[in-house]
Amino acid sequence: MSMLTTIEALEALYGTPHERSVRKEITYVNEDYRAFIEHAPLVVLATSGPQGLDCSPRGDAPGFVRIVDERTLAIPDRVGNNRIDSLRNIIANPYIGLLFIVPGVGETLRVNGRGRISADRALLDSFAVEGKRPRTVLFVDIDAVYYHCSKAFARSKLWDPSHHVERSRLPSAGQMHGRLNGPSFDVEAYERDLAERMRTSLY
């Protein structure tokens, strides 16, 4: 199997990008791109560091990503598993990518930039939900913003309810933990308490 190993070979195969594909990339959040950020309850954060890559979701009520100004975003880091893979990477390498997803909408918005992490008390207070502050806030200094067309979502039929997968067709969280942790892990207890943990520990 032959592999493509040069930029020249890739460009020869794919050709020149359409002018519209180039012009949609700008260095700031304009009115149209602001609308995507304000309506997105989910953003996927991609980072890279000495230990490798990380790509993880960040979700909350629409508008949880704050537009500080046209070149700066702020994202609260809510309670999680404390692996902090993304944050570790950003300390070592600030370059990040964001993908904003709006339910029911085929287009997505991509932001490339550099991250800075703050634990300023007043800032954390401003992001509090139900009286609970995030651990940190990630500032994103924007280098590029552009939108992706809806072809990927159209091909995947992601928003088509007739293609939604029943959760029971996949291993449950408890089952996955059980296989990873061995027979001492109490799958039934984990799954019995899961709904309550979700209710009480979102923030």
What does this entry look like structurally?
The protein has 203 residues and is an alpha+beta fold. It has 2 domains: 18-156, Electron Transport, Fmn-binding Protein, Chain A (Pnp Oxidase, Chain A), CATH 2.30.110.10; 165-200, no CATH class. The chain has helices spanning 7-14, 19-23, 31-39, 85-92, 121-126, 151-156, 173-181, 187-200, and strands spanning 42-49, 52-59, 66-69, 72-77, 95-101, 108-118, 136-148. Helix 7 crosses helix 8 (187-200). The radius of gyration is 20 Å and the shape is globular. It starts with 6 loop residues before the first helix and ends with a helix. The mean pLDDT is 96.
Keywords:
2 domains, globular, alpha+beta, Pnp Oxidase, Chain A, 203 residues, 32% helix
Strand-helix topology:
Blueprint: H1 7-14, H2 19-23, H3 31-39, E1 42-49, E2 52-59, E3 66-69, E4 72-77, H4 85-92, E5 95-101, E6 108-118, H5 121-126, E7 136-148, H6 151-156, H7 173-181, H8 187-200
Antiparallel strand pairs: 1-2, 1-5, 3-4, 4-7, 5-6, 6-7
Helix pairs in contact: 7-8
CATH level-four homologous superfamily name of the largest domain:
Electron Transport, Fmn-binding Protein, Chain A
Residue stretches low in confidence (pLDDT < 50, at least 5 long) are none
In what range is the share of β-strand residues? 25-35%
Given this structure, which CATH class of the largest domain is correct?
Answer: Mainly Beta
Specify the CATH architecture of the largest domain: Roll
- Strand line-up of the largest beta sheet: 2-1-5-6-7-4-3
Largest sheet: 7 strands, antiparallel
